[in-house]
Amino acid sequence: MHFVYRLIVNTLIFVVFHYLFPNALTVKDWTAAIVAAVVLALLNTFLKPLLHIVSFPITILTLGLFSIVINMVVLAVDDALVSGVTIHGWGWVFVLSLIFSFAQSWITSTEKVR
């Protein structure tokens, strides 16, 4: 069930960020936002762990800050794969990756409380 919550939150982040910052993120419609959320979930499931394994030494040397770069790469791949969602610039990829990270941390913390 938590997977569904994550998809809903990710979809809402895409849509709300698009309406708040239309020059930063373009979302064609709700369908594109849902597809982007599903693709992001799949990338977080399969690609992100591989990137963490490969970059483990760098992550240790940077005291975990390299995880932000990994999140940015995953989000950029999502942007490249989904045609209805476009992130305009690496600065916005950085901001969105932080927002997604905080949202996922919040979801994880609320799941542990239950």
Summarize the structure.
The protein has 114 residues and is mainly α. The protein has one domain. The protein is built from 5 helices and 2 strands, in the order αβαααβα.
Structure in words:
- The structure is a single chain.
- This protein has 114 residues and is mainly alpha-helical.
- It has one domain.
- It contains 5 helices and 2 strands.
- It has helices spanning 2-20, 30-54, 56-61, 66-81, 90-113, and strands at residues 25-27, 85-87.
- A two-stranded antiparallel sheet has the order 1-2.
- Helix 1 (2-20) crosses helix 2 (30-54).
- The model has no long low-confidence stretch (mean pLDDT 94).
Q: What is the radius of gyration? A: 14 Å
* N-C termini distance: 13 Å
User: Mean pLDDT score, rounded?
Assistant: 94
The string of secondary-structure elements, in order, is HEHHHEH
In terms of per-residue confidence, which ranges show pLDDT below 50 for 5 or more consecutive residues?
none
Largest sheet: 2 strands, antiparallel
What amount of the residues lies in strands? 5-15%
Number of domains: 1
In total, the number of strands is 2
Q: Helicity range of the residues?
A: over 70%
Strand order of the largest sheet: 1-2
Structural class: mainly alpha
**Shape from CA axes?**
globular
Structure annotation, total helices: 5
